[in-house]
Write a structure and sequence with these properties.
mainly alpha; about 220 residues
Length: about 220
């Protein structure tokens, strides 16, 4: 018999959207495919979103034989690429206007120009690991467009990044079966760690630039 404490811990470890996610099992394979594409697209536009958890659940459905692994991988990757390119074009076409009108109120003009310069120097490397930077994907794509990175190379690199990440998520869901929801806890922890590392790296880089600038004066 389970103790009340263990039952409570299990409840806390479950994704908050799990009842909704499980209801997706009643959908037809076609609708599930459409949903996987849509959520992979939307999470690049409106972060944060539970896209990774849903892709893992898609892997669980692959394990059940409800949907096909290859089709799920192609559609989630296509959704990721098109979502990335949408924000890329927003940055390319409207980025300067958005910055001039101070729509990004959480960033100072100096920090924006610093990020731009960072992208011009290391942008393609950032895109390669973009899919693994949970919570910052739309920011990466926006600044990639703002920095005028080459669209064909950007598309290829973000596609490779998305393909690897989505393969891992779908495979994990298929491998874990009914325990697919345990991935959500690890994804949450992973997201917090990665976000902390990215923020720390940006702060360290900004401090170094400020130090070098003052040294020249």
């Amino acid at each position: 018999m389970r103790s009340p404490k263990s039952t409570q811990n299990n409840k806390h470890s479950r994704p908050p959207l799990e009842p909704f996610i499980h209801s997706l099992e009643t959908l037809s394979p076609l609708l599930i495919y459409c949903l996987l594409f849509a959520i992979s697209y939307i999470e690049n536009i409106i972060p944060p979103s539970p896209s990774d958890v849903l892709v893992v659940f898609g892997g669980y459905l692959v394990g059940l034989g409800t949907i096909d692994f290859t089709i799920a991988l192609i559609l989630t990757t296509a959704g990721s690429i098109t979502g990335f390119l949408t924000m890329y074009k927003v940055g390319d076409w409207f980025g300067e206007s958005i910055i001039e009108r101070r729509k990004l109120t959480f960033l100072s003009l100096d920090s924006i120009h610093t990020v731009e310069e960072w992208f011009r120097q290391y942008g393609y490397w950032i895109i390669v690991v973009n899919r693994f930077l949970s919570g910052t994907r739309s920011v990466v794509s926006f600044f990639a467009g703002l920095s005028k990175l080459k669209v064909l190379r950007t598309t290829l690199l973000c596609g490779v990044s998305a393909l690897i990440w989505n393969w891992l998520m779908i495979y994990a869901g298929a491998l874990l079966g009914k325990n697919w929801n345990s991935v959500a806890l690890y994804l949450s922890t992973y997201s917090q760690i990665v976000s902390g590392i990215v923020i720390s790296a940006l702060i360290a880089w900004g401090i170094r630039r400020l130090y070098l600038r003052n040294k020249k004066l």
